[in-house]
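Milestone M4 deliverable, item 7.
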Amino acid sequence: QVQLVESGGGLVHPGGSLRLSCAASGFTFSTYAMSWVRQAPGKGLEWVSAINSGGSSRSYADSVRGRFTISRDNAKNTLYLQINNLKPEDTAEYYCTRDQYKGQGTQVTVSA
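Output delivered:
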């Protein structure tokens, strides 16, 4: 079955960086577009970024464009999200998604 396992979250100061990873299994990773979404405390899911199956096309929410970079390694069945210049409003649980599937999430907390 489809499994998505996120990692790499943590507590960072404003301006800091993190790299989130999502290990995918149970499907042919290289043939699917993938996305990252996040959920801040008390709020709904927010789409963050997406990448096509080959990695040649990427898109970002306005709130993260220029600070976040999505990438993938199809040989390793892994999706990444490089997050730079973190802001307190980036605090959220981050999930990788494929269609209706979502992992368990990794928590990112930005605080001084």
